Structures
1.
Amino acid sequence: MTTVKEVYSLLDENYPYCIQEDYDNSGIMADCGAAIDKIVVSLDITNAVVDYAASIGAQLIVSHHPVIFRPIRSIVYHSPLQRMLRSGISAISAHTNFDIAKGGVNDTLASRLALQNITSVFKVSEKSVKGTLRENYIGRMGNLPHEMTPAEFAAFTGKCLRGRNAMEYVEGGKPISRVAVGGGACGEFVFECMENGIDAFVTGEAKHHEMIFAKDNGITLIAAGHYATENVALEALADTLKSGLNGVEIIVTRVDDPVSFTE
């Protein structure tokens, strides 16, 4: 019999929860006590994801984004959390620890963009891990296989992220060789790109002033969508579960995928 705590321990071995950022709430969201033989892996825990998990008889959802992020004042009828508990479905999240850890979101994103000589960038915190002080870096940087223009790289990024078209970018006005990535909401790190010799920065979302800074300072900034830049890592998360859990079925769902469109 596999338990929620055993699944959590497996995730902790691969993406240590002690390295999550201070504001985060990764970990066990709910433990309903049932034995686990079927797990749904998703980016978020939405009503659609809970309904899907219940329809296939899953006892656990492992998500990237926590369904409980801030202290709960009430549980509302037909909210994802209420539906989950009513169906007896447990939940674990692996959020910023999965962003930061080796083999997580940003390693996967860098690999998807075919970056070479990948190293860590964008320091976020220092944590004590088993008595030693450790630096955490949330982003990754590396070199493209060959130089591209900003327009070529934007098109390449869209293709690498499964042809998504709901993205925007500003051109830095120079050829692109060195690229940094930060999945999700990492636009704030554009200010560190110049000191690291970055030609282009790919993230999920960026604020208006961050886009202006990038363009004014010769950096091509691509806001490729929060979902698109983190969705690529779901298979890696599922593979970790599959490798460590015998007799447990692991199913990746994308029923929470937002609709993309062009005018």
Note: The chain has two domains: 4-94+233-252, 105-230.
2.
Amino acid sequence: MYIFSRTYIKEKWAHVGFQRYFKNTGWMFTSRILCMIISFITTAFVARKLGPGNYGQLNYAISFIGIFSMLATLGIDGVLYRDLIKNPDKKNEYLGTALSIKLFAGFITAILVSISAIFFAQDDVSKILILILSVTFIFNSFQIINLEFQALAKSKYPSIISFLVTLILNILKILIIINGKGVIYLAFILLLESMLYAIFYWFVYEKKIEGKILEWRFDKLIAKNILLDSWPLIFTSAFVLIYSRIDQILIKNMLDAHSVGIYGSAVSISEVWNFIPVIIVTVFFPAIIYAKKTSEKIYYTRLKNISILLFTLSVIVAIITTIFAPLMIKIIYGDAFFGAIEILKIYVWSNIGMFFGILATNYLIAENRKKTLAFITFIPMMINVILNLIFIPKYGIVGSAYATLISYSMVPILLILLKEPRKIFATYE
């Protein structure tokens, strides 16, 4: 496995460009891990104090608006990032156009979410939470500034912003809980989070990039090109969001908020491992793509090696979590969440499919196989929805966990069935 060998690492470390890239990604990953740790500890504290019922209400509202988030983003981030790298001299036009599109989409999405909450949310607390959180779609539009930092390989600044916002918001969450306030106050904190990101990104952009947001301009032709390039990714994002969020929405509607709280606590522990494939793919995928220019054999060998690595790590994570699930739930959430133990033991095995899904997304985008990407996300989504509708009435939240496990497992299965991805698992001398 040459890309993981000492010789390969020494060769790359000696390269000036690699050191610059390593420092850039180092800021990003350090910030992400610190934010994850802070958020996880705070989430456990909040969940303990709120109890399964109130914690479930908040999780339901977050999942509800999550379903609609693809309408606010329109899948343009990847396209915008590419265009900012290719056309740095036109950044004002690209950023101004993207911001205009996102502000409009965010405003419309907020209205649609609010109307949907009035008709579909079953209780007043859920409706209020969703109405508050829907406003985040508008302020989240300013997150496109982060793409400019990434395009300039200056992840240091958004990484610091992310850490500061996470620290501030989680301190506020703890203070709210200590003072006996409820989920409505926590929803306002989540709204404040999107506002702080918008303010900090704006401030740092003008100070460190020496750009002026007021100089950004909307370009009709650029808007057309961005939307034409991104529309297939809208469906892909929608499929992923639905099959990753629909379980908690259906549990709330078919059972109750208490069940969502129990289920959501298991999901939080399982998803804490998601940083592993993100880091591995982000670090090694550029080298994998570069190999395609020189040798198809090396390209597919590297893909196979990283696939084996991700599979191995996901299985190790699943085994460790399954063994220590009772201890994890007791220490992190307490006895009130005892019912989450069985859910965690099942749900954590879906990480195998999730790990592969992150690699598959990067691989298929690199291969410009957007239709294939849409296919391998649409099938799991449909399976997840159908199985949840069948399993929840019969088996409760345990049935939902099995539905998620089965649907996520479809990702590697579909990849093996498709002709092109099978080359990854071919044997090379």
Note: The radius of gyration is 22 Å.
3.
Amino acid sequence: MALRWLSRLMDKATLSDRRYSFLFEPGPPDETVSIDCETTGLDPRRDEIISVAAIKIRGDRILASETFQSVVRPRVAIAAEAIKIHGLREVDVASARPIKEILPDLLHFIGGRPLVGYYIDFDIAMLNNHVSEMLGIQLPNPRIEVSSIYYERKYSDAPPGTQINLTFANILRDLKLPLFNQHDAFSDALMTAMIYVNLKDYVARDIRIPRPRIKPAQDYHGM
């Protein structure tokens, strides 16, 4: 915690554009932002964002009227394997704006709110490639990882050898939530928001997610 506070303090001091100091101010009470990026590939060092979406959450309400979404024109080619996942081709992003033109609007949208995501470290790493170019810092927003909350609710007391399934589809299924068009930035951000709101309720009411019972192995004595 102390290291995180010190890092934020140093980043605020080295911020290259003081107009973005609002990133270090707390957002409105009990507000978060669910965020998702689709990318040209899975390597944050080389790949780039081609689609980004964000949705505000206030308490237990997903603010469907307060959303951000944009297609992005990357500086690198889209990998064939990535196209198979999200379906975005070069022609689909050719007329889009570059991330440097989109990023200011996105930063103003999220402000200092905590960012909610599924394996959010990847999305933040992709965004930070451009935030650091623009502002000389990394995003200071707190992060909330929904798979970690789900793990705590379902598996934290599991016996050794328990099979753990943290896939997006399995989390949605366990929470009885609909699976929309996965690997679309807006759909993923919306589903992540629904997961977060439901898990927050589980935590508040101390509800555990049930695990299938494992039948004990039967002794086999043979003939």
Note: Confidence is low (pLDDT under 50) at residues 217-223.
4.
Amino acid sequence: MKHWIGIDVSSKTLDFALLDELGTHLESAQVGNDRKAVMKLMAAWRKRHAVEIEQSLMRLEPTGHYTLMMLNLVVEQQWPTWLAHPRDIQQSMGIKRVKNDKVDALRIAQYARTFRERARMFTAQNLKLDKLKHLLTRRQHLVRVRAMYKKHISDLNRYMDPDIKKAFNQLDKRLIAASDRAVLRVEQLIMAQVRGDEHTSEQYDLLRSIPGVGPQLSAYLIALTDGFHRFTDPRELACHAGVAPFERSSGSSVRGRTRVSHQANKTLKTMLHMAALANAACWRTQDLLPTQSGRRQEAHPGGQRCAE
């Protein structure tokens, strides 16, 4: 690579920082979060600094829907792009005293050059999975909103004045019904996104064949792991999910018991925990069910899977 380009993304603007192959900071620029503005800047850098996009590496952080325009552009133009987690940069910088968009873009470019051997190119397949992530995030938001309305009926509204309690109960019930319809529609969009790609659909069916793994966990695992290409080792995924314990000791001193890290993906950890509980309850129920002969039915690995 001859140039390294760091991009800090916000809702309205994109901050760019350009480094040459020696790590010299050539230029910084801020443009609107707009396709034409980005193409114009790349054309200007091609003239001023002989930047050939095919021999450069762009790096930006995932910031939800704010990055969608840029990701669509780099896939369409086939620009080498690395989409990495912001925490990696934060932990590599050490002590920092200045924080603004221009400086962040420069740090992103410096990180890309320093750790270029870790780069994973963003592809059209990653773009499809990125859309799946957005849908799953929206579903989680709708589920939380629905739970809030249910909490109103079961707790908050109970202590209201009787004159307004009935009105608020009716309002919350209508909002719950609307949330149910919205969740159902988003789940349909999630399934359409999964089934729209043959490889993703095959991975989804394999995950669904595992006892206790439901549709949401299957889709979330595929999206989180970029189709199981993000992690090269099962232990990395276990660590990311917060189910791998770590020792806490120094010399001869043991500082507390072995525990999992708080830097885990709490959403994935919760989903795996609930799947394990559902599976355990399933086998426990089967173990207690009597057979036609009157004997207790034994649960075993080859037994029938619980309906989800």
Note: The chain is about 55% helix and 10% strand.
